[in-house]
Amino acid sequence: MSLTKKEFRSSKRNILSPCIESLLNGSLLKRIKNIFPPPFSDVKLKSEITNVVYLNWMIPIEKIRDMIPEGLEVNAIQGKVLFSILTYRHGHFGPAKPDGLRSFYSSPLQSNWRFYIAADTKLFKEPTVLFVSNSMSSSLYCLGSRLFSNMMYTHHPLSFSHQCIDDHIHTKIDPGTSNAPDLEVICHSVEEWKIPNDFQHISTQPSELLEKIIVQNRALTSQDLNSSHIADISLAFDIKEIKPLKIDFFKSHTLYEIVKEEECFAFQIPSLTFFMNNEKRIKQCFI
Length: 287
Description:
This protein has a single domain (45-282), classed as Acetoacetate decarboxylase-like (Beta Barrel), CATH 2.40.400.10. The chain has five helices and 14 strands. It has helices spanning 17-25, 27-35, 139-148, 206-214, 256-259; strands at 45-60, 76-77, 80-89, 94-95, 109-117, 128-136, 154-155, 159-165, 168-174, 183-189, 218-224, 227-236, 243-251, 265-282. The two termini are 28 Å apart.
């Protein structure tokens, strides 16, 4: 399965699957959203997120070149690029205002897979991530993001669990027939930080390394060779609450060839506040 497939595919085939897929993948919807700003473009979205698990690898750049839009440069260090998976539980994810309505919004699970874009004086003056895949446990949120936003080409897997009990965490994503990437991870918190050798080229200090991985101000999604969308993002968290994690079990057919020889640097943020707004289209290509 390709990590970068954006087409919506139902996780379980039924009589409505072809109609839904035709609508969400069709050129008509894409043209409408490119002509008229989607409803969420100027709306500030907010979520009180819990149990964020970061899985991070430094991957040889030659393994991921075909995942990067033509002309876009990802941040390479010693011939390797940082790749992160964030999995978490949303907390009433929806418009930040009016505040009184936030209790009505749901709290689905989400898994966000991303690379880190190299600094550029024209388009990427601030720390920016490239979204390559997004999955959510809620079919309603998945369809909503497809219809009303250009930032997240969200997949809806057959099953999605993210259980955090005491110091142990078990995450499992079964894509079914969807284009969601598969993932199963079992891990537990530990007392001391152990920074893999490849990550020490970024920083040998845990706090500085965490800041570089976590703090990103913008997110980019590539639609095609000539069109992408970008949005402002921000996270509010307490770095002192972050816990190092040790991986007990990892399985992913999607990622096997990419990360099989690389050491994972994992950690958990118990809670944070997420904001996203100002979604806009970048018409020019990156070359």
